[in-house]
Structures
1.
Amino acid sequence: MVNPILLIVVPLGLAFALPIVNLISKKIIKYIPVLAFLFNLILSLLLIPKVLEQTIIVKIGGFHPPFGINLFVGPVGILFSTLIALAGFLVSIYALSYIKEGPKEKYHILYLLLLTGATGVVLTGDMFNLFVFFEILCISSYALVAYLGNKAGIESSIKYLIQGSVGSSLLLLGIGLLYGQLGTLNMADIANQINSISSPSIFVPMIFIITGLGIEAAIFPLNAWLPDAHSSAPSSISAILSGIAIEVGLYAVIRVIFTIFNASSFLMFFVFLGVLTLLIGEMSAFSQKNIKRMLAYSSIGQIGLIMFAISLNTQLGISAGFFQMISHTLGKGLLFLSVGFLIYKTGSMKISSFEGIGKKMPITSLLFTIGAFSIVGLPPFAGFASKFMIIKAALTTGQLLFTVLIGVILLGTVIEGAYFFKVIQSIYFKGTTDIIKRDEAPLIALISMSIFVLLIIFIGVYPDFIARILNSAASEFINRIDYIRSVLG
Amino acid sequence: MEFLSNYIYYIGAFGLIFIGLFIILVKHNLIKVIIGIGILDTGVNLFLIAVGYISKGTAPIFSKAGLDANNMVDPVPQALVLTSIVIGVAILALALSLAIRLYKHYGTLDLRKIKEQRW
């Protein structure tokens, strides 16, 4: 039987082996992330059927929980690790032709560390371990935002760093308060004992932890860093930050709310916060002139939508939230990757500079269009299936409030459609009508983006393919007793 | 006085945390903000140590006979703080190196004058 800990160990080990390989040959280092995430992808796919039968608990060093650190490889963990490995694999293929300047070996090391941190966060079953993996994720993303070393990159990176480090201090403070009261760091053990202490003393650490994690998840009042950081990073990193990093942050928030604190009364607040995040994100995106900034604000909107779906606290709602996460990772990843080469060829991030580029780069423009259609939610793409599922989940609750809020969300989607179609219009229907010489993105980047498109269409046409894992993932969050039992035995 | 002597570490820890947050929120010089992050980190570390500390306790090692397990300090928060100090050092080092690059680009460290990226 394969051990799921390899999902963390292999990328981490390769990240530290990379400088040594760099001494031997400078040409092969860029293939190391591809190899690492291919390995992770295959391992995750092999583990999925086993995990769906029974959750795997890895006891690190042979110490039994709650005394040792354990990994909890449940349906949610394996769903996320597959998604991380898939996005990491495809983006590292893209980066083979995209990353040409700067200290390349450092890019690849940080890229491996970023995704190692993300995989660690989703698999760990220990509060402090969660903090450590979160810091690995955060510190490598601070450095990667500044990778290009230009004015905008350095400035956004320092902003991100200040806000992120305040967030992680709050998270650690919350963990400390929790440890002071319960004397344990194991998530299942905390969840088991949480009812034994009075509610005001749970409330304070919960607020600290949620605020700390919420900064990374870009929940509405805490998202000031996101548009700067996502728009100044190299496009391949923007795809990962937007598709993986903020979703991992959101995963941590909902894991804390559902499993550890069992605070379902708190979820009503999150429903409103989600709708607010959605509206603010979409409206800010509408007024942007810079394409990457527009996509970054659109990510905030999507995070709000996911929060709304998960906060419905029903089986269907939570699985719809996870579905939306998958379609957001694929769609936004594709958008950022295709925009990367549009910016590279036009030399500008202004939306107005894309006029007529549909004739110069037809394939890349087509890929961008498909990504935009999927994010907006047009059939037959994945975004349609996931948004449809969210609406269905909200309507089956039968409460008037959710029906009204769905109306607000559809308004947000209309705004989303408006700004995406504005860009698509200027790509295809504006600018010169002359025949321009074609100047396409490199073949290897086109292949990686085409795999995103295939997945988007496949999942959009045949959503039942992932229905089973989404259902088990949702039940993992609803049945917290099962979580506690499977860890503590 | 009794209260003060019992809770002096917690008071100190939260004092440091609030001083750190105050510096981060109020000061305009980037280096001062980074110092604020350092103080905030120190406050959190002191808090974690205070959680596991017992007054006149011993190290949690049965080094000689007659040591009482109830009189030992909790080793877990100390392990956490070691990790947290290392993370704090990494963040401060990265922040200072970014500050150097920022100064090269703008010629100033005043955060009010650095607003290429609007919020």
2.
Amino acid sequence: MKDFAQINRRDFIKLGAAAGAVGAAALGSRRLVAMEQKLGGEDFSATTGAARESVPYTCLACNIEDGGIAYVENGRVVKLEGNMDHPNTRGKLCAKGNSGFLHIYDPDRILSPLVRTGKRGEGKWKRISYDEATTLLAQKIREVIDRANTENKPEILNEIVLKWGRNRTGGAAERFMHALGSNAILHHTDICESSKKVGLEPSWGPDIESCDWANTKYILNFGSNILETAYFMNPNAQRLVDGVVGNKAKLVSFDVRMSNTSGFADEWYAPYPGTDGAIALAMANVIMYEDLYDADFIRDWTNVTAEQLKEHLKTFTPEYAEEESGIAAADIRRIAREFATTKPATTFSYRGPVKHVYGSYQEAAIHMLNVITGNVEKKGGYCLPRGMGWPQPEPEPPKGRVPSLLATPPEYPLASHHVSTLAPYRVRKGEAKVSVWMTFYDNPAYTYPSSHVWAEFLKDENLVPFFASFSPFMSETTELADLIIPDVTYLERHDPESMPSGLYPCLSIRQPVVKPLGGTQEFRQTLIDVIHKVDPDGSLGIKKYFAFDTVSDWMRAHFDEIPGLKEEGGYNFLKKKGVWPIYGKVDPNTAKIVDRNGNEVEADYGLHRKELSASDMEGAEVDGNGTIRKNGKAIGVQIRGRNYVGFGTPSRKIELYKESFKKFGFNPLPTYKRLPTRERKDNELVLTTYKVNVHTQSRTASLKYLAELYHKNPMWIHTKAAAARGIADGDLVRVTSSVGYIVTRAHVTEGIRPDVVAISTACGHPSYGRLAQLRQREQAPDWAQGAASPDISNNVWWDDRGVHPNPIIRLAVDPIGGSQGWFDTLVTVSKAQPGDSYGDVQASVEASDRDYEETLRYAYNGDIHRKNHPEVDIEWDALPPAELEGVGHPDAG
Amino acid sequence: MPIGLQAPPSLGVPGKKRWAMVIDLRRCIGCMACVCADKAEFDVPLGVWRTVVKVKNTGAFPNTKRHFMPRLCNHCDNPPCVRNCPTEATYKHEDGFVLQRYERCIACRTCIAACPYNARHVLPNNRDHVKIGGVVDKCTFCNHRVEKGLVPACVQTCLGRSRIFGDLNDPNSEVSRLVATHSTVVLKPGKGTQPQVYYIKPDRGLTEQAYSEPVSYAAKADARAFYRHNRSSKFFSGVL
């Protein structure tokens, strides 16, 4: 994606300067006649009528990073609204975004650092100052650094671990860890969507597609819930509705459960979990064998031939896909024909297909449908994401010297987004050591598969001698910490942002819209303070990477030197406008971005077809495949005499054939592997999870507006499956996997496959403040320092907080993408037994340990891997060894 | 002659405004952004709503559909709540807003009983930052915004652009164009209230759903808890 960010920046700087001038002018009179009321951009108090102060920011209720405007009255944020200048989110916020300001005023917010006084997890704390807290953390870190230096073992530095969930610091957290010399940076991407990323990146460079929803005519959705939750929900949902209602596009959706997206679709199909790839391959088979493919595009822009694809797809017939998925071959054939012959068309996929073992194959198969039909980078088609970058302040610390086993397990050399789920198992087995564990925007004791293992692990002072959390909320994970240095909420801190949430690349800013509540300190400042205390005199050579007097200085270093933005005012422009560039205005009737004459400011298409300039070509060489190289780096591709930038791959073409996969015994072409859950016993069901439109995974249960709308998560079960088990709607049921069981209630519905059950996330919190636990009438615990909310204390009317499914979900790692197979757990469901009560949870650490051993067998050096890949023609006995330093993990070291 | 503080119906009267909302149900995705924006706009406490989105599933597997039905005060051109208010707390503005004057309201609930749409509620006293309670409240069509040239908050944030707001007396307005070019319905037209919220593409299931009882155990259990808490209202929202 970096390559494209650079191209984009250069191109859009020109456009940005032009559009910025236009944006300042008033709309033409033609438009004013049609729509007399303004959509937004200013706000007035409902009680006094007074204008409210407005401050732009970037949302972080979830991870879409919508542009927002906060309205402030008497120093209090009273309302949030979308920023009309944001070209992709266009003045709209979703339910979560609209409710995000409640985070600030959460009565159970932590407003001062806390140090543990009782046993770990006992809930006894002493309030200390930020100065004392950063001194304590710095001292713990310094001890590790001193030991590494004394023993001359840089690997000791990897005992300093930072695990984050939602890191939108724009490089600050990485800078901190690299400055300390540690590579033990654990992401959450593998419990999110990393197998999708790994299915895409080797093929065309970036990690996601950006669909031109508004202009398309046909959408094939595989397992994503675009209208509720999937990546870029708000901007994608806006454009999807424009496409389907406004542009008369057809939406065909594959999902095991009737989500709002599938309930909205023209056609909904519910395949067996984990078989989307078989359907996509069968569609590709139909498209290739019925000659419906784009021969020119395959010839010019891919590293395979049509004949090669036909040969590969021969056995993936619609009948085969019907056998695997349960979707009729006739439907698969018809949809394949419609998809290939309706132009433009696009697929979109998200967690449904990819959160399985072998999820990356499924993503690659879906991606291929767009490639063989030539819909890539077309108006109305399947486009590359458009993001922008920002420079990091110099000097930048180099990565640590030794790769970290916890961050980059060598068994997963293709998992470019890391595998974090294995960490507690490895530490418990003595394979890696931890001295200081830090956690930021992360709650694995609630959000991870077999979440009980994380709670056990973090509770163990022998395994995790020191544990610091930066969370402002008492989550299931943070309550186990020794030290809490609370960050502020996203409306009170600084971050640079850019999200490819639409076809217009832009930068945006997060900034305090009010003074941080209760004298709290933002994470960025805490990092500066800790570093300055670890290396007070600069003798360790670390302090120079944090030579910022203030957080604002740091932000200036990101924004003040970007060409184009610099001329318009750099950081000051972003502080005022929130987003850059300003492409135009949102037309109130069409929601398109228009210039002052009301004409659409059209997005750029065909990014791969940008031609290289003569100066780019100076000193470049073209190899036999057309790849253009300069200074050892592939910069483009020559096709029939023209020099294009191409795609972000080694050949600069779309690499449907992935050499990197083959090296480790994986099929280099998109394929399908039957999962163990396909061998289901008659009484078993596949457990799936999902998110709803008004919640994130774990952070929003404490927001009153959202909790009021959705607070309990009964298990969806099909009418027939329920009847076969004697279960009626609302019955108490016991759901049992090989890890343990939970007791919840049944929601009997027609909207789910009969062999699947579904339980949403976001409910059943055993912590996360009083409201999430429905203990709002109790007295505030000592650590809770927000102002009391009379509304929450008195007006909560619901009496059910739900039951969380994660403890019984098995650990399962995709051997390619490293993702958690969230939908690979089989369960039995029965009426609750005598003595069972709602919310009971029983989960075994030993059973999860067995899952750990089992899932490693699927890794490239495991025995099941070889058995599952007889078709891959390599020297199986000469696979590269799974050594930390040997494999060349993309991010190692 | 109108009774109470009732401005005469303004629909189609030259020189008058008639604010109205069109809700294009083809475009509603049930995202609940409007519900939350409205809660924030007025610091609406838990347990009451000025606007909700009703959810209904229809069909049998695999031919199922999900429908959404946003609801709010209809700002009737002939509002029964105004006729029935004994203290003239509720009145109709000449531009069409049906509004509430808190200082005159004695919370007698007559208007609540008179409203065929369940669109009114009694404000609880325990609120976070707006300290008005113990009186009847309702959707105002965001008249405080509209008078400053803005659309209502729910329209502003509507992801699907399902909610459209404007002056129905202006033939060039978007609402006029939509009402003129689409078949629309209003709720309970037989009550003679002349409601001014127009729905595009409602199928039978949808209009019925606006008043139907909850079906699933999950929804019924919430409804029970809600009624226990707030016996005056059946106007509540939920995702299940």
